[in-house]
Amino acid sequence: MSYLEFKYTNTGGNIMKPSQILSLYNGEYSFVDNSRPNSHRYHKVVSKSSALQAELKSLVDKNIYDLIDKELEYQNEIASIEMEYAYVGGFSFAISLFLEAIANG
């Protein structure tokens, strides 16, 4: 059972289960061929991140670098969980609004 299934509150009726919405989020039912943006902004940030990572690696010893890397891994995992939760909530809310609009004609 995932984190979302413990925290989920149903806002859109029984239309879709959180696991189905997460399948959309995770790309199992995707209309997008590539999940990574192909934009100048994205590539610029990736380049900056890579340069900073190389600089940090050269400035600190391996043990400190490994600790920093592990903390960043945890922060990324936290952000991923938060994005999944926000996606499920936002998707459910959008479906509710859509159904309300249809019902009110």
Low-confidence stretches: 1-8
In total, the number of strands is 0
**Estimated helix fraction:** over 70%
Question: Total number of helical segments?
Answer: 4
Overall geometry comes to: elongated
- Main sheet properties: none
Radius of gyration: 19 Å
Task: Assess the beta-strand content as a share of residues.
Answer: under 5%
Mean pLDDT: 80
Distance between the termini: 38 Å
User: What is the H/E order?
Assistant: HHHH
| Secondary-structure content class | mainly alpha
Notes on the protein architecture:
The chain has four helices and no strands. The chain is mainly α. Helix 2 packs across helix 4. The N terminus is likely disordered.
Gist of the model:
This protein is mainly alpha-helical. Helix content is 71%, strand content 0%. It has a domain of 68 residues.
Descriptive keywords:
single chain; 105 residues; mainly alpha; 71% helix; disordered N terminus
Which SSEs are present, and which pair or pack?
Blueprint: H1 3-7, H2 18-25, H3 40-59, H4 62-103
